Every structure is written in structure tokens, then in C-alpha cells.
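Appendix C reproduces, verbatim, an entry submitted by the partner laboratory led by Prof. M.T., so that reviewers can inspect both the input and the predicted structure.
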Amino acid sequence: MVMLHMKRSEAEQFLFETTVEAGVQETVAELVEVNNLRQRIARLKLEGEELAKYGPTKPLDKQGIDSYAEEPVEKGPHYNMDPTGRRTGNACSSQVAQVLMRTLEEGVAAASKDQVERRVPLTKHRLSEAIDNIRGAVMICYPMGLPEWDFVRQALEANEDLAGTSYGADDMDADTTSLWFAGKQMIAGKKLSEFLGRNEKSKVVVKLTRKGQGAPAREPPVDAETQKAMMAMYYKKQEEQKKLAEDEDDTYTSAAWANPKTLKAAFSGMQNVKFPR
């Protein structure tokens, strides 16, 4: 199986396993699906933490800080006012909230870019399983369910409206996405082998861009860690050159070991002669 290292940026990257006999458009669809699942987990982490601390989302027309509310605020046994006014403040108990927080952390870890260093490819099944685990943890916290306008429920049901939000650029659409390798666009309707060769054991860096954006930026010739090591070595050499420059004086010529007549004086017995004053 060929290993595709899908890289949108240093923070957005993952590994994906496929075969060189797979079609380009099929691979684009699979990569886009994995990317979108990763983004959903990231959004669930952000909104899920708020859910655990401050309870479900208020309806849009009732959002506001509770301390300034004109009507009486319903406060449950674990009430914790949301400083942003987006949530009701009626959180779940701290014990079950810990279960939700831990499940969110596990989900983010499963989709993390750190899996690249561990050489663990991501799959739709694995990421969907992480989302199902989060769904179960939310049901434990709020067995009565979440309102339809709650961000966490919408993310769990893949029913989010991301238009006009900061998350709008996260998800991709397979129909409007292009796959690139080595600065060249892979043409839909062809197989990966026509661009990557027939070696199933290879690992290549590929990139996804929206159609019409042109070629993505090329990878730097060295990675960040190697660049840091090179800069450290260059700095060390500079310091050594500075020390050598400081030592380029002729004060050593007055030292005894630098006297060209020292050997002759030693043989003639005149080396340490002291004249009376």
C-alpha cells in the first residue's frame, strides 16, 4: 500500500494508505472525507469543552449574559454562568463532565498531526469511531438530549452551517478539490500509478487545494528541525571565528618559546644567565 502524506500546513497533515491502482478522483474523495472528519473532531473539542462547563446552547434570540437578563434565569444544581452568554450555564455534574473531557481529548489525539510522526495512517472508520465515542459521552452528560440549535449536536449529526464562521474554510468538497504531487496536478480519470509509479511501498507528500487556486506552495528543502540544527552550527562557527580573530595579535612574540635563539642559548649554557646588578 502506498502511503500518502497529505499536508495542507504544518498543523494540518495526516497519513493515508491506499493503492497506486486507485483512481485520482476516488482518492480525492477519501482524503477530503478524512480531512473533514478531523475538522469535525477539532470543532467538537472546542464546543464540547464549553458544553461540559456551561451546559447547552441558548436559542439565538435569548443569548446574553445571565447577570443582565431581564427575566428570571433557570438555574440547575450544577449551574455555572457562561461569561459569553451563549450557553445556559446548566452544566452536568463534574464527574460525568470529566468523562466527556477525557473522550474529547482521546478523539483529538486520534486525529492529531502527531500520528504522522508515529507513522499511523488515518481512516474514516477510526475517526468515525472517535466521533461515536464523543456522542456516547454527551448522552451520558445530557441524557435528555441537546436542543437542535446546539453546536455540539449539529457537529455530531454533521448538520453544521459553517457559512460566515471561522470554521468556514476548514471543510472541503471533493467536487471542487484538486490533488497535487511534486508541484503537478493529478488529473481526474487517471490512476495514481500514472503520477506516483507502481511501487506500492513508497511514501509521498500530496496536497489538496480548491480548484482555481493554482499550485500549492512547495515543500521547503529542509524541515524545521534540520533548519534549527543548521542555524545552531552556523552560529557556533561564527563564535569560533570571532575568537580566532581576537587571537590574531603578535604579543606571543615576546614569549620565551617564540625566541629563535632559545635553542642556541641552551647549547651554549647561556639560557638562564643572570647578570649582577
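The chain has a mean pLDDT of 87. Additional entries are available on request from the coordinating office.
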